[in-house]
Amino acid sequence: MRIVSLDRYPVKAMRGETLQSVEVDARGLAGDRALAVLDARGLFAAGKRGSRWRPLERVMAYTARLGDDAVVVSRGDRAWVAGSPELDAELSAATGEPLAVKAETPGERTFFDSRPVSVVGTATLDWCRAELGADADPRRLRVNVVVETSEPFEEEAWIGSEVGLGEVVLRAVKRNERCRVIDLAQNGAEGTTRWLKPLGERRDACIAVYCEVAVPGVMRVGDQVAVAAR
Asked: How many CB atoms lie within 10 A of CB 61?
């Protein structure tokens, strides 16, 4: 098994960036979801509704990339520095709600939905295309790592084990239960798809696994993936 692709999302809910390599520390991929768009009540702007989220899908039309000195957010030919009053004004005008891009506060709850790193296998995506009729574009899942696998959902068997990805060692913790976001046009995946309902009927709406970082290091596309024996 090898790493097929790596993705990072500097601003939660916005389109992310595809990488060839990335530093991974105890928190997760460097810069991943370190910023988020918050409303006046402190809820995350997102594509879903919940105790921490508010559905403001227009935020998902923006792209965030980690530059040398700052996170740059863009849409079309316009760009802003994340955290600037200009970007906050742009997002507020686009959604009709007062919004601000905020940084995660060290020592407090992170901006991750559950665990810091998410992984899905190529065979799982192939199964979803063949069995569920979904486009199964991994960009809809907003995962960090896509790995080459031979059996559908074999990554779920890694739960409770350590998984080496290049220099990095992850500990697979739990399945990732999905929401309506995977059906939306977002993160560069054009159009909508019918994925959540059949996934719920066949797989409890779960795809990909959440992981914690056991050993930091660098992950690179093409790096070998090895699962430790229990």
From this structure: 13
CB contact at 8 A, 75 and 15: no
Amino acid at 180: R
37: left (phi over 0), alpha (psi -120 to 50) or beta: beta
Distance CA(92)–CA(100), nearest Å, equals: 8
Closest listed residue to residue 120, CA positions, set 151, 89, 91, 94: 151
Q: What is the pLDDT of residues 38-80, one digit of tens each?
A: 999 999 999 888 888 999 999 999 999 999 889 999 999 999 9
Report the chain's C-alpha Rg in angstroms.
17
How many other CB atoms are found less than 10 A from the CB of residue 29?
26
The number of C-alpha atoms within 13 Å of 39 and in the hemisphere containing its C-beta is 15
Evaluate if pTM is beyond 0.90: yes
